[in-house]
DNA sequence: AGCACGCCGACT
DNA sequence: GTCGGCGTGCTC
C-alpha cells in the first residue's frame, strides 16, 4: 500500500480471510490511520456477526466499495510486516481449490493458534451514567458488584450473579447506558521467561564484593548465597559476566533458602530480572556429527543430483535399512551451503525418535523441529524462527508445509507412501506429500521423495519418466535383509500346534530368541484385547450404540471401547441379553498377545506399544529408549513399530493377521498390506546379524505374500499397476470420495441418490460409483453413504469437474428435502 | 463454524 | 403466563 497513500480521499477496503468454513472472503473498510501500514498477509481484528471478534488475514486490498451492504471497519491491525507471505497465500488458495474446502479452513490449520488472538468481552460501568432511577433492583445489585471490580468478563458476571442466563440483565443495562462492553484483545503467544539473579550495581567490583562478604558474616545464609553466586560468576569475571546473571533455579540448587535470597534482593544487593528465552533451550549439541557416505550411498546421492539437473522431482527407492537418512543429510548440507532453505517432512511417529537427535548433531541450531506434540507457543517460536532467518532448515510433520519458508531449495518427503500424510478428519483434507511438491515447485525447489515401498502413484510417475528414479538396493554396512518365512496356520491348526494365537513354529522361535538374549518384535495391527465379546448362549455381540461397529474389549482399562466414536462402557459380567455368564472374547489385539506372551514366557520382559500405551507426551520415547537399551525382550505393537525405527538387536519379527490386511475391502488394501509387511519385516536384523521374519497366514500361496518374502517390490508393483489400470484407479484416475451423512438412514440414502444421479447425468456411470452404504454404515448416530468419483487424468478437465461437483452439492443443499444432510468431500482420498 | 432469532412444550 | 428446547438463516 504505497502508491495511493497521498490521495486522502480514497477509501480502502480489505477482503479478509476469516477462520470460518464459509467459501468466500469478507470485505471490511480500512480505517484511515491503517491505510499506510496495511498489507496483504497482515493479521487484522474484525468484528464478525453481532458479538464475535476474530483474527483475520488480509487477502486483498482494493478501493471498490461493496454494493449490497455496509462494510464494517477493521478494528485493529496486528502486523506491519505481513505474517503470511504471498507465497503462503497462494498455497492456501491452491489447497482450498484443489481439496474443495474453504480458505478459512486452510488458514485455521496453517496458522498456529498462538498467533491468533483471543478476545473476551468485558463490561464496565459507564462513567457518564446518570440515571440510576431507571434501574431495577437486580440491576442495582449488579452495578454495585461492578463498582468494586472495575471490569468483569461474561463468565465473572455469571459467577457473581449466580445465574446462568444473565443476557437480559446485561442487555437491559446496556440499553440504559449504565454499562459499556468492550473487547480486550491480546495475543496468545507468551514468550518463555527465565528468572535470573545478578549483583546489583555497585557490588560488582571485586573489592566491593569482598567487602560485602565480610559484612555478611553475621548472616551466614546470605553469605553462602553470595559465595554460591561467585561459583558461577568468578570474581575476576564479574565485570563482564555479572550483567548476564545466572538462572535463579541454578542458584537454588544448593542449600539456599528462599527467604535469605529475598532478603538480599530487598536489601538491594542482588536483583532479580527476567529474560526471554527459547523454548527449545540452547542445548549445545553433543559433538557435531560428520556424515560419510558409503560407496552405495554416494552413488545414489550423485545419481539424485544428476537427476535433478533434468527433473524437479526424484523418487529415491531405497530398501529398509539402506541408510536413506545419510543421503538426505548430505543433500541438505549442500543446499544449505548454497543459501537456500530445506524442508524435511516425516510422518508423525518417525519424528519422535533418534532422527531428531542425529539431525541436531549435524545441523545444530540452524534446524527447527515442528511436531504436533508441541505446544502452541513452541510452534510460534518455530514460525518466528523461520521468519527471522534463524532456521534455514525445518524437519517436521504434515502441517510443517504451512510454515513461512519462501526460499526453498529442497523439499524432502521421507516415507512418502505413508497415508498419515493425508489429513482426514477436519478439512482441509490435504495430502502433505502432494502439497509439499506443489510448494516446492512453486519456489523452484527440488523435491526428493523417499521410501522403501513407494506409493503406486509415485512409482508410476517415476516409471513413466515424470519423476527421476534412484534405487538403493543394498543395506547399510554389514546388514543383510532378513529371511522371511510364511507360517501355515491351517497346517498348524490341523496338527493342533497352536498355543493361543501363536503357531508352534513362532513360539519356538521366540523361545529360542529369548535364550539367545536377542530381541523380538510382535506385530499385530489391532489394539485392545479383542475386537468384540460374544455370548456363547445367545450369540450376543458387544456393539456400539452409536456406530455400526463392535465394541473392542480393553483388558487394562477393563472397558469396552468404540474405536470410532470413543464411547466407553463397563464390561458386562453377564450377557446383557440372556444373563448367561458364558461370555468369551473373539479375535485378538495387541493386549491379548502381550497377555499371552506374559503367560507363555513369564520371565521375559514384555512391552506393548500402541495408541493406548503412548498417549502421554513422553511415553512413546520411553518405550523406545527402553527397548533400544535392551530393557525389553519382546515388544508387541501396532503399525507404530513399523515407522522408521532402527533397532539394532532385533533378530525376530512375528507378524499376525496379515490376511486381514490383504483382504480388507478397499482398492488400496493390497498396497497398504505390502507396505506394512515389508516395513515391519525391515525392523529385523539391521546390523551384522541376519534377522528372521515370520508371517502367520492361512494362505501361504498368496501372491502378495510371496512378493513380500522375496522382497520383490517391482514384481508387486507390476501386478498392482495392471489392476489399477483395469479398474481406472489411481494413478490413472483421480478419485474424489463424497460421504453423505444424516441421522435418518433414509434421508441420507435419498440425498446420496439424488446427488449421484445429478453427477451421473454429466459424468456418466463409469465415473460415478455408488452411492452405497459406507463400510461402517453408522458413526456417531449418523448413517453414511459413499459416492466415489473417478476422473481420468488425461482426458478430463479436473477443475471443471470439481466446480461442477461443487455446484451440485450447493444445489443439494438448496433442495428442501436434502438441505440438512452433511456432505464431506475428500479429494484424492486414501 | 458460531450465534441470534423464532416458534412450540413443561414448568414456577 | 415464562424458560428453554433446537430448527433456520446469516455473517462483510
From TrEMBL:
<keyword id="KW-0547">Nucleotide-binding</keyword>
<feature type="binding site">
    <location>
        <position position="538"/>
    </location>
    <ligand>
        <name>Zn(2+) 1</name>
    </ligand>
</feature>
<feature type="binding site">
    <location>
        <position position="565"/>
    </location>
    <ligand>
        <name>Zn(2+) 2</name>
    </ligand>
</feature>
<dbReference type="InterPro" id="IPR040498">
    <property type="entry name" value="PriA_CRR"/>
</dbReference>
<dbReference type="InterPro" id="IPR041236">
    <property type="entry name" value="PriA_C"/>
</dbReference>
<dbReference type="InterPro" id="IPR027417">
    <property type="entry name" value="P-loop_NTPase"/>
</dbReference>
<dbReference type="InterPro" id="IPR014001">
    <property type="entry name" value="Helicase_ATP-bd"/>
</dbReference>
<keyword id="KW-0238">DNA-binding</keyword>
<dbReference type="Pfam" id="PF17764">
    <property type="entry name" value="PriA_3primeBD"/>
</dbReference>
<dbReference type="InterPro" id="IPR042115">
    <property type="entry name" value="PriA_3primeBD_sf"/>
</dbReference>
<dbReference type="Pfam" id="PF18319">
    <property type="entry name" value="Zn_ribbon_PriA"/>
</dbReference>
<comment type="subunit">
    <text>Component of the replication restart primosome.</text>
</comment>
<feature type="binding site">
    <location>
        <position position="562"/>
    </location>
    <ligand>
        <name>Zn(2+) 2</name>
    </ligand>
</feature>
<keyword id="KW-0235">DNA replication</keyword>
<keyword id="KW-0067">ATP-binding</keyword>
<keyword id="KW-0413">Isomerase</keyword>
<dbReference type="Pfam" id="PF18074">
    <property type="entry name" value="PriA_C"/>
</dbReference>
<dbReference type="InterPro" id="IPR001650">
    <property type="entry name" value="Helicase_C-like"/>
</dbReference>
<feature type="binding site">
    <location>
        <position position="547"/>
    </location>
    <ligand>
        <name>Zn(2+) 2</name>
    </ligand>
</feature>
<feature type="binding site">
    <location>
        <position position="575"/>
    </location>
    <ligand>
        <name>Zn(2+) 1</name>
    </ligand>
</feature>
<dbReference type="Pfam" id="PF00270">
    <property type="entry name" value="DEAD"/>
</dbReference>
<feature type="domain" description="Helicase ATP-binding">
    <location>
        <begin position="305"/>
        <end position="472"/>
    </location>
</feature>
<dbReference type="InterPro" id="IPR041222">
    <property type="entry name" value="PriA_3primeBD"/>
</dbReference>
<comment type="similarity">
    <text>Belongs to the helicase family. PriA subfamily.</text>
</comment>
<feature type="binding site">
    <location>
        <position position="578"/>
    </location>
    <ligand>
        <name>Zn(2+) 1</name>
    </ligand>
</feature>
<dbReference type="Pfam" id="PF00271">
    <property type="entry name" value="Helicase_C"/>
</dbReference>
<keyword id="KW-0378">Hydrolase</keyword>
<keyword id="KW-0639">Primosome</keyword>
<feature type="binding site">
    <location>
        <position position="544"/>
    </location>
    <ligand>
        <name>Zn(2+) 2</name>
    </ligand>
</feature>
<keyword id="KW-0347">Helicase</keyword>
<dbReference type="InterPro" id="IPR005259">
    <property type="entry name" value="PriA"/>
</dbReference>
<protein>
    <recommendedName>
        <fullName>Replication restart protein PriA</fullName>
        <ecNumber>5.6.2.4</ecNumber>
    </recommendedName>
</protein>
<feature type="domain" description="Helicase C-terminal">
    <location>
        <begin position="506"/>
        <end position="729"/>
    </location>
</feature>
<dbReference type="InterPro" id="IPR011545">
    <property type="entry name" value="DEAD/DEAH_box_helicase_dom"/>
</dbReference>
<comment type="function">
    <text>Initiates the restart of stalled replication forks, which reloads the replicative helicase on sites other than the origin of replication. Recognizes and binds to abandoned replication forks and remodels them to uncover a helicase loading site. Promotes assembly of the primosome at these replication forks.</text>
</comment>
<keyword id="KW-0862">Zinc</keyword>
<keyword id="KW-0479">Metal-binding</keyword>
<feature type="binding site">
    <location>
        <position position="535"/>
    </location>
    <ligand>
        <name>Zn(2+) 1</name>
    </ligand>
</feature>
Amino acid at each position: 500500500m504505497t502508491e495511493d497513500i497521498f490521495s486522502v480521499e480514497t477509501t480502502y477496503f480489505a477482503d479478509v480471510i476469516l477462520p470460518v468454513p464459509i467459501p468466500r472472503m469478507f470485505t471490511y473498510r480500512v480505517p484511515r490511520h491503517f491505510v499506510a501500514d496495511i498489507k496483504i498477509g497482515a493479521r487484522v481484528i474484525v468484528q464478525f456477526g453481532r458479538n464475535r471478534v476474530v483474527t483475520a488475514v488480509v487477502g486483498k486490498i482494493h478501493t471498490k466499495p461493496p454494493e449490497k451492504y455496509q462494510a464494517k471497519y477493521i478494528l485493529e491491525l496486528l502486523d506491519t510486516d505481513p505474517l503470511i507471505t504471498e507465497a503462503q497465500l497462494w498455497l492456501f488458495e491452491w489447497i482450498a481449490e484443489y481439496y474443495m474446502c474453504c480458505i478459512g479452513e486452510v488458514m485455521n490449520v496453517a496458522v498456529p493458534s498462538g498467533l491468533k488472538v483471543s478476545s473476551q468481552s468485558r463490561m464496565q460501568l459507564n462513567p457518564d451514567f446518570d440515571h440510576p432511577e431507571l434501574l431495577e433492583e437486580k440491576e442495582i445489585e449488579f452495578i454495585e458488584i461492578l463498582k468494586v471490580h472495575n471490569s468483569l468478563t461474561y463468565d465473572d458476571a455469571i459467577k457473581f450473579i449466580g445465574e446462568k442466563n444473565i443476557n437480559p440483565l446485561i442487555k437491559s443495562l446496556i440499553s440504559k447506558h449504565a454499562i459499556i462492553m468492550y473487547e480486550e484483545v491480546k495475543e496468545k503467544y507468551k514468550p518463555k521467561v527465565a528468572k535470573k539473579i545478578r549483583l546489583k550495581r555497585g557490588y560488582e567490583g571485586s573489592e566491593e564484593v569482598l567487602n560485602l562478604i565480610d559484612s555478611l558474616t553475621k548472616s551466614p545464609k546470605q553469605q553462602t548465597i553470595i559465595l554460591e553466586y561467585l561459583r558461577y560468576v568468578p570474581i575476576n569475571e564479574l565485570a563482564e559476566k555479572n550483567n548476564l546473571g545466572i538462572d535463579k533455579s541454578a542458584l537454588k540448587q544448593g542449600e539456599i533458602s528462599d527467604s535469605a535470597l529475598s532478603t538480599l534482593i530487598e536489601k538491594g544487593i542482588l536483583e532479580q530480572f527476567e529474560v526471554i528465552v527459547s523454548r527449545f533451550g540452547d542445548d549445545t549439541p553433543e559433538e557435531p556429527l560428520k556424515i560419510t557416505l558409503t560407496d552405495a550411498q554416494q552413488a545414489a546421492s550423485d545419481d539424485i543430483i544428476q537427476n535433478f539437473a533434468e527433473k524437479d522431482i526424484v523418487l529415491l527407492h531405497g530398501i529398509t535399512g539402506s541408510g536413506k537418512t545419510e543421503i538426505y543429510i548430505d543433500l541438505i548440507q549442500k543446499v544449505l551451503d548454497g543459501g537456500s532453505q530445506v524442508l524435511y517432512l516425516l510422518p508423525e511417529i518417525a519424528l519422535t525418535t533418534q532422527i531428531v537427535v542425529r539431525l541436531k548433531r549435524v545441523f545444530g541450531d540452524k534446524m527447527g523441529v515442528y511436531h504436533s506434540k508441541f505446544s502452541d507457543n513452541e510452534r510460534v517460536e518455530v514460525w518466528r524462527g523461520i521468519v527471522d532467518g534463524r532456521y534455514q532448515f525445518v524437519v517436521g510433520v504434515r502441517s510443517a508445509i504451512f510454515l513461512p519458508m519462501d526460499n526453498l531449495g529442497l523439499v524432502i518427503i521421507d516415507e512418502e507412501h505413508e497415508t498419515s500424510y493425508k489429513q482426514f478428519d477436519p478439512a482441509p483434507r490435504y495430502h502433505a506429500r502432494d502439497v509439499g511438491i506443489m510448494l516446492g515447485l512453486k519456489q523452484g525447489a527440488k523435491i526428493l521423495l523417499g521410501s522403501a515401498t513407494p506409493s503406486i502413484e509415485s512409482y508410476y510417475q517415476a516409471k513413466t519418466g515424470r519423476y527421476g528414479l534412484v534405487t538403493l538396493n543394498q543395506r547399510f554396512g554389514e546388514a543383510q535383509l532378513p529371511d522371511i518365512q510364511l507360517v501355515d496356520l491351517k497346517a498348524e491348526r490341523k496338527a493342533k500346534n497352536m498355543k493361543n494365537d501363536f503357531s508352534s513354529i513362532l513360539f519356538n522361535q521366540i523361545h529360542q530368541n529369548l535364550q539367545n538374549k536377542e530381541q523380538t518384535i510382535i506385530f499385530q495391527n489391532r489394539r485392545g484385547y479383542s475386537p468384540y465379546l460374544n455370548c456363547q448362549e445367545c450369540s450376543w455381540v458387544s456393539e456400539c450404540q452409536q456406530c455400526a461397529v463392535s465394541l473392542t474389549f480393553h483388558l487394562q482399562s477393563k472397558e469396552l471401547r468404540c474405536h470410532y466414536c470413543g464411547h466407553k462402557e463397563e464390561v458386562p459380567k453377564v450377557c446383557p441379553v440372556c444373563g448367561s455368564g458364558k461370555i468369551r472374547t473373539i479375535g485378538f489385539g495387541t493386549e491379548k498377545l502381550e497377555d499371552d506372551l506374559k503367560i507363555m514366557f513369564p520371565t521375559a520382559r514384555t512391552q506393548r506399544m500402541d495408541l493406548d500405551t503412548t498417549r502421554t507426551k513422553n511415553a512413546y520415547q520411553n518405550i523406545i529408549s527402553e527397548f533400544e537399551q535392551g530393557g525389553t525382550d519382546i515388544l508387541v505393537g501396532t503399525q507404530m513399530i513399523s515407522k522408521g525405527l532402527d533397532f539394532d538387536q532385533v533378530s525376530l519379527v512375528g507378524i499376525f493377521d496379515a490376511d486381514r490386511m490383504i483382504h480388507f475391502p478397499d482398492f488400496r488394501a493390497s498396497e497398504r498390506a505390502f507396505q506394512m509387511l515389508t516395513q515391519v519385516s525391515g525392523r529385523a536384523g539391521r546390523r551384522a546379524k541376519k534377522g528372521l521374519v515370520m508371517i502367520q497366514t492361512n494362505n501361504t500361496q498368496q501372491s502378495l505374500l510371496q512378493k513380500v518374502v522375496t522382497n520383490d517390490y517391482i514384481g508387486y508393483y507390476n501386478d498392482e499397476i495392471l489392476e489399477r489400470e483395469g479398474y481406472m484407479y489411481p494413478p490413472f484416475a483421480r478419485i474424489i470420495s463424497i460421504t453423505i451423512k444424516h441421522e435418518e438412514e433414509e434421508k441420507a440414502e435419498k440425498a446420496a441418490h439424488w446427488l449421484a444421479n445429478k453427477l451421473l447425468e454429466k459424468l456418466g456411470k463409469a465415473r460415478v460409483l455408488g452411492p452405497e452404504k459406507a463400510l461402517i454404515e453408522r458413526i456417531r448416530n449418523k448413517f453414511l453413504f459413499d459416492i466415489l468419483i473417478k476422473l481420468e487424468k488425461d482426458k478430463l478437465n479436473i477443475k471443471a469437474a470439481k466446480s461442477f461437483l461443487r455446484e451440485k452439492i450447493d444445489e443439494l443443499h438448496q433442495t428442501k428435502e436434502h438441505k440438512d444432510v452433511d456432505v464431506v468431500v475428500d479429494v484424492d482420498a486414501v
